[in-house]
Every structure is written in C-alpha cells, then in structure tokens.
C-alpha cells in the first residue's frame, strides 16, 4: 500500500514540475516578445524625435527669412 502511495506521489510531483517548467517557459517567451516590441518602439520614438527636431529647426529658419518679414509687419 505504501509503495502505491509513494508511486502516486512521485507521479503527481513529476507532473507538477513539468507544468511549472512549461509555465515558466511560456512566461519567458512572452517577456522576450514584449522586450523586442519595447526595443522597436524606443527606436521608432527616437526616430520621430529626431524628425520633429529637424522640422522645428527648419520652421525656425523659415520664420527668420526675409520673405516672412513682410507678413509680420502687416
């Protein structure tokens, strides 16, 4: 009787370990996907900031041009 109980207990513990490892593996995969997406978003945001800064400089340069001076006086 004790032998059957110990075998059943070992089987349950083995299944528990297998399920725990599988859950950990899935969580790790999800974390890798989120990390990759975050890296991509950071790069895209950085590119947007650079583009906006360049446009701001262009707008400032055009605002100081002589063609725009006549519009300001009106």
Folded structure, characterized:
This protein is an all-alpha fold and 74 residues long. The chain has one domain. 95% of the residues lie in helices and 0% in strands. It contains two helices and no strands.
Topology readout:
Layout: H1 2-63, H2 66-73
Give the radius of gyration: 32 Å
Average pLDDT figure: 90
Question: What's the N-to-C terminus distance?
Answer: 103 Å
Percentage of residues in DSSP E strands:
under 5%
Number of helices: 2
Major sheet description: none
Which key phrases capture this entry?
rod-shaped, 74 residues, 2 helices, mainly alpha, 0% strand
What's the short version?
With 74 residues, the chain is an all-alpha fold. The protein contains 2 helices and no strands.
């Amino acid at each position: 009787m004790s032998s059957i109980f110990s075998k059943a207990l070992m089987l349950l513990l083995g299944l528990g370990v297998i399920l725990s490892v599988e859950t950990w593996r899935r969580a790790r995969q999800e974390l890798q996907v989120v990390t990759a997406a975050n890296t991509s978003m950071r790069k895209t945001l950085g590119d947007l900031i650079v583009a906006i800064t360049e446009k701001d400089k262009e707008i400032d340069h055009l605002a100081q041009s002589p063609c725009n001076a006549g519009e300001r006086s009106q």
